[in-house]
């Protein structure tokens, strides 16, 4: 494993790389100072095949985005049998444990068939208390939770489509959308509540059926190559 702080890379390369991640792209467009704060708490990590990326039971606050290679997801530390899911470039992982305040529910390993695995890791412990506006502003938190709620509902809709007869199929639709005033603490509290409930529901789906892959924007291999040199 090789960990490098974002500050070690050319800024143009980092900006282009993170433009493929909707949350970071939105923060950079709205508030460059907030973007800088997030970068100060982020790193690029390279793993060799077979190295453990996340251990089941870990309790860290990091959020991860896979940039290159593939990751194998196992339900326990033994790593026996076939993985229950494969994470591919562009996917985010680590978000469910953070939202539910539970330890990591699976062990994630750099796939043996990948020459190397490159991960963007951001410590979301910097978010602090939900109602705090320093160092992470209200608007930045709103951007994160809007994006998160959208992604979680999308994943749950995929499950509902593929397992329409399951008792969990329509439960996410009972979690109410926010219809009040925008860009305020009230919206943030609602989005946070939605995200936590949706994350807990998605964990229940994952326990029953295994994880569903969710592709974000594709990552440019040339940018990843630039990060490595």
Describe this structure in words.
By secondary structure, the chain is α+β, with helices and mostly antiparallel strands. The protein has one domain: Jelly Rolls, CATH 2.60.120.10. The protein has seven helices and nine strands; from the N terminus they run E-H-H-H-E-E-E-E-E-E-H-E-E-H-H-H. The chain has helices at residues 11-18, 22-30, 32-40, 95-100, 138-162, 185-209, 221-227; strands at residues 2-5, 42-47, 52-54, 62-68, 71-74, 85-87, 92-93, 107-110, 117-123. The strands form two sheets. Strands 1-2-9-4-7 form a five-stranded antiparallel beta sheet. A four-stranded antiparallel beta sheet has the order 3-8-5-6, with no helix packed on it. The longest helix has 25 residues, at 138-162. The radius of gyration is 17 Å and the shape is globular.
> Order of strands in the sheet with the most strands?
1-2-9-4-7
Low-confidence spans: pLDDT under 50, at least 5 residues?
none
DSSP strand content: 15-25%
CATH homologous superfamily annotation: Jelly Rolls
String of helices and strands: EHHHEEEEEEHEEHHH
Please give the domain count.
1
* CATH architecture grouping: Sandwich
> Which structural class fits the helix and strand makeup?
alpha+beta
Query: Which bin fits the share of residues in helices?
Result: 25-40%
CATH class (first level) name: Mainly Beta
Number of helices: 7
Multimeric status of the protein: single chain
> How would you sum up the global shape?
globular
**What would you report as the Rg, rounded to the nearest angstrom?**
17 Å
Note the main sheet.
Answer: 5 strands, antiparallel
Kindly report how far apart the N and C termini lie. Answer: 16 Å
Mean pLDDT: 89
What's the count of strands?
9
């Amino acid at each position: 494993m090789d960990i490098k702080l974002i500050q070690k890379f050319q800024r143009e390369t980092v900006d282009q790389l993170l433009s493929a991640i909707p949350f970071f792209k939105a923060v950079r467009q709205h508030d460059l100072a907030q973007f800088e704060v997030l970068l100060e708490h982020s790193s690029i990590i390279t793993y060799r095949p077979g190295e453990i990326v996340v251990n089941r039971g870990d309790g860290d606050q990091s959020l991860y985005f896979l940039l290159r290679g593939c990751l194998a997801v196992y339900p326990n530390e033994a790593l026996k049998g076939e993985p229950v899911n494969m994470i591919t470039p562009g996917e985010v992982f680590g978000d469910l444990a953070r939202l539910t305040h539970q330890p990591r529910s699976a062990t994630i390993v750099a796939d043996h068939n990948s020459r190397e695995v490159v991960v963007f890791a951001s410590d979301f412990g910097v978010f602090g208390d939900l109602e705090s506006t320093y160092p992470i502003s209200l608007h930045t938190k709103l951007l994160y939770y809007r994006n998160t709620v959208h992604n979680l509902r999308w994943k749950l809709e995929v499950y509902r489509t593929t397992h329409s007869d399951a008792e969990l199929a329509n439960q996410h639709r009972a979690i109410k959308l926010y219809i009040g005033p925008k860009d305020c603490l009230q919206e943030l509290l609602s989005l946070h509540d939605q995200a936590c409930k949706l994350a807990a529901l998605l964990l229940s789906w994952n326990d029953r059926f295994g994880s569903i892959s969710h592709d974000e924007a594709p990552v440019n291999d040339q940018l990843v190559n630039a990060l490595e040199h």
